[in-house]
Specification:
By secondary structure, this protein is mainly alpha-helical. It contains 5 helices and 3 strands. The protein is globular, with a radius of gyration of 16 Å.
C-alpha cells in the first residue's frame, strides 16, 4: 500500500500533515492500512471479507498497470487525467454500477 509520501507530497498534503486537527489527522492512512502490494490484491481481499463478487466491485484508478492487473478480479474504470473524475467518467461509473455493459472502447471493463 501507499501512505506517507510514496507519491510525493503536494502543498495541501504538507499543510494537513502539519496541522494537529483531529478531524484531519483521522483521515490520514496508518501503516496497518497499507499492508497490501497491489490494488488487485487489495480488491480481492476486501471482496472476500465482505462477500462481494466481481460484478459488485469497480476499481477506479489512474494507473493503467493497476487497472490491467485488477481486470482479473473486478470491473475497472481508468481515470486518465489523474485529477479526479470528469463528468463523462462519472456517468460511465454510474452506468457500470447499474450493470449496464459499456460500448466498445469504453474505459470500464466488464468481466
Amino acid at each position: 500500500g501507499h501512505i506517507g509520501e510514496t507519491y510525493g507530497a503536494m502543498p495541501f498534503d504538507k499543510e494537513v500533515a502539519q496541522e494537529q486537527k483531529p478531524e484531519l489527522q483521522a483521515m490520514l492512512g496508518e501503516r496497518w492500512q497499507a499492508q497490501w502490494s497491489s490494488k488487485d490484491q487489495l480488491a480481492s481481499n476486501l471482496m472476500r471479507q465482505r462477500g462481494l463478487t466481481a460484478d459488485q466491485v469497480i476499481l477506479v484508478e489512474d494507473d493503467p498497470q493497476e487497472v490491467r492487473k485488477a481486470k482479473a478480479v473486478c470491473r475497472t474504470l481508468l481515470v486518465k487525467e489523474a485529477r479526479g473524475l470528469t463528468p463523462s467518467q462519472l456517468e460511465q461509473l454510474i452506468r457500470c454500477s447499474k450493470g449496464e455493459v459499456p460500448g466498445r472502447g469504453s474505459v470500464c471493463s466488464i468481466l
